[in-house]
Design a protein that fits this description.
By secondary structure, the chain is of the alpha/beta class. Helices cover 50% and strands 12% of the residues.
Length: 206
């Protein structure tokens, strides 16, 4: 099994989003004792989330006190650790909606805080990586759709094969030193301008 290098604890910025209480004080002491750079934020201010590596959030208090918690679950600014003091289905569902990367139960204990912080960091990085890969894949698919559309236009207009249409696009791309996708977009745009809006050539005015 290959080893995974853990981040330097002293470089990890932790934000604790929890109202004043004994549990918050206890968790704050644990996080600082471990060596994390820890700050407290209540009520939550979304603008500072991006300056944290890990955000611990008390979900029940957020829900019960109707506190605004602006969090982008699809592209989270940091790793999210949900603080749960009991397993209410509504609160667990909220943690799932926020795509929490780890969970810490309360009453708080020293054991598990550091481990869940690192697990949250790892899961957050994995989410970001998968999101980037998915975006690249979608972009490639859209690019291929445009190229295929341009080839179809050339095949109809010039009565040539798909291979010849692709060769034409590639030749223009090389001559102009641009991508095949850019040439394809030009072909599609030109065809749309010359069409009557229904994909068929416009009839000249008499």
């Amino acid at each position: 099994m290959s080893k995974i290098a853990l981040p330097n604890i002293g470089d990890i910025r932790v934000l604790l989003v929890q109202p004043p209480c004994e549990e918050r004080d206890a968790l704050l002491r644990i996080l600082k004792r471990v060596g994390f750079l820890t700050e407290v934020n209540w009520p939550p201010v979304a603008a500072i989330f991006e300056y944290a590596d890990v955000v611990f959030v008390a979900l029940r208090q957020i829900s019960e006190e109707n506190v605004k918690f602006s969090w982008n679950a699809e592209v989270p600014p940091a790793a999210l650790v949900a603080l749960l003091d009991f397993e209410n289905p509504a609160i667990v569902n909220e943690a799932m909606k926020l795509n929490a990367h780890a969970v810490v139960g309360m009453p708080i204990r020293s054991f598990g805080v550091m481990a869940n912080t690192f697990i949250a960091l790892k899961n957050h990085q994995l989410q970001i990586t998968l999101s980037q890969q998915s975006a690249k894949l979608r972009a490639r698919i859209e690019s291929q759709k445009i190229v295929d559309q341009a080839k179809s236009i050339l095949m109809r207009a010039k009565n040539i094969s798909e291979a010849e249409a692709h060769k034409t696009l590639r030749s223009h791309a090389m001559n102009k030193r641009i991508s095949i996708e850019q040439v394809a977009k030009s072909v599609v745009s030109a065809e749309e301008i010359l069409s009557d809006g229904n994909g068929t050539p416009a009839t000249p005015a008499s």
